[in-house]
Structures are given as structure tokens and as C-alpha cells.
């Protein structure tokens, strides 16, 4: 059973991010496959966690370069997800309780499409508006305190 299918709805038309998102889905599915096969899912989970840490760090760097506030809701959501993922790993390794891993699989599969559609789409929009090239790290529009993106870059953000 596929944990999360990659669909056109997840495509944001930002090649670096779309590739990273596809990899996230592949890691999540490999983790889910290990759980379904009733084999040790920790190696797949470690790979998923490492990928997610790098994935979020990449987005955090882009947000900083585009002038997002340091404590924005997009970054806060990343921090919450990583905290939960790390806590599930702690339960699995220190307490030998694997149930949080099963729960997390379902929760990540439900969370990710919404996050991509809202938070990441707003990031891509801001990057496009500012002329930010994630490959070179260059930004056409100089980012000043006045030009900084409030909140997560979404017009619906209450920040």
C-alpha cells in the first residue's frame, strides 16, 4: 500500500523544490513499506528524518534569503514536525515503543499535501516575486527590513 501518492497536485513548478518533495514522498513510502512488511522500519525512518531535516533546512535558507521573518509560521511548522519526528524516534529507540512511528506515518501523509499547497506554494510565490534563484542563491530584489515577508509569505497568514 502506498502511504502517499505523488500527484500533479503536489507540483509547485519550482524544480529544486519539486524534486525534494518527490524524494520526501519516496522516503515516506519506503518507511511505510517497511512498516507494512513488518520488518525493521528504523533504517527507512532514519533516512526519512535525515531527508526531512535537509529539506526543511533548504527551505529555511530560501526564506532567510527572501526576507521572511525569522520566527514565521512556515518555520514554526517545520520545527514542530521535526520535534514530533525526533520524539517518535526516541520512543522507538529508548522505550522500544514503535506505535508513534505508525501514527506518524499517517499524520505525515495527511500533513504534507496541505503544507506543500499552502506554505510551500507561498514560499515559491515569494521567491518568484523577488526574483530569487535557488540554484545560485541570487535575488533580483534586494531584501530590506521593509521588504521582508511577514509571517509565512501567505496573504492568509495572521502574522
UniProtKB/TrEMBL annotation:
<dbReference type="InterPro" id="IPR016131">
    <property type="entry name" value="Haemerythrin_Fe_BS"/>
</dbReference>
<dbReference type="Pfam" id="PF01814">
    <property type="entry name" value="Hemerythrin"/>
</dbReference>
<dbReference type="InterPro" id="IPR012827">
    <property type="entry name" value="Hemerythrin_metal-bd"/>
</dbReference>
<dbReference type="InterPro" id="IPR012312">
    <property type="entry name" value="Hemerythrin-like"/>
</dbReference>
<comment type="similarity">
    <text>Belongs to the hemerythrin family.</text>
</comment>
<keyword id="KW-0479">Metal-binding</keyword>
<feature type="domain" description="Hemerythrin-like">
    <location>
        <begin position="17"/>
        <end position="122"/>
    </location>
</feature>
<protein>
    <submittedName>
        <fullName>Hemerythrin domain-containing protein</fullName>
    </submittedName>
</protein>
<dbReference type="InterPro" id="IPR035938">
    <property type="entry name" value="Hemerythrin-like_sf"/>
</dbReference>
<keyword id="KW-0408">Iron</keyword>
